[in-house]
Amino acid sequence: MSARFVWKGAAIAATLAVFVGCGGSAPEPETDVVEVDMPEEVPVEVTPPARDDTVKYVDPNVEYRDTLQAIHFEFNKYRITSEAKPKLEAIGALLKDHPDWKVLVEGHCDERGTNEYNLALGEQRAQSTKRYLVSLGVRESRFQTVSYGEERPIDPRSNEQAWAKNRRAEFRVEAPGS
Amino acid sequence: MSARAGRVPVLATLLVTVATAALAQEPIIDVSKRADRRIAIGVGRFETLTTEEVGSPAGDVVAFDLEVSGWFEPKRPGMLPPRAFEDWARLGAEVVAEVRQEGGTLVGAVRDAGTGDVLFRREYPSGRGESLRQRLHRYADDVVLALTGEPGIARSRLTCEWVPPEGGDKRVVTLDLDGFNVRELTGERALEVGPRWAPNGKSIVYTSFSSGFPDVYVHDLVLGARDRVAHYEGLNADGDISPDGRRIALVLSTDGNPEIYTKDLDTGRILRLTANPATESSPVWSPDGRRLAFVSDRTGGPQIWVMNPEGHDVERVTLRGTYNTAPDWSPDGTRIAYCALRSDGFQVQVVDLATREVTTVTDLGGCEDPCWAPDGRSILYSRKAGGRTDLYVTNLTERRALRVTRGDGRYSTPDWSPVP
Question: How crowded is residue B178: how many other Cβ atoms within 10 Å of its Cβ?
Answer without folding.
Answer: 24
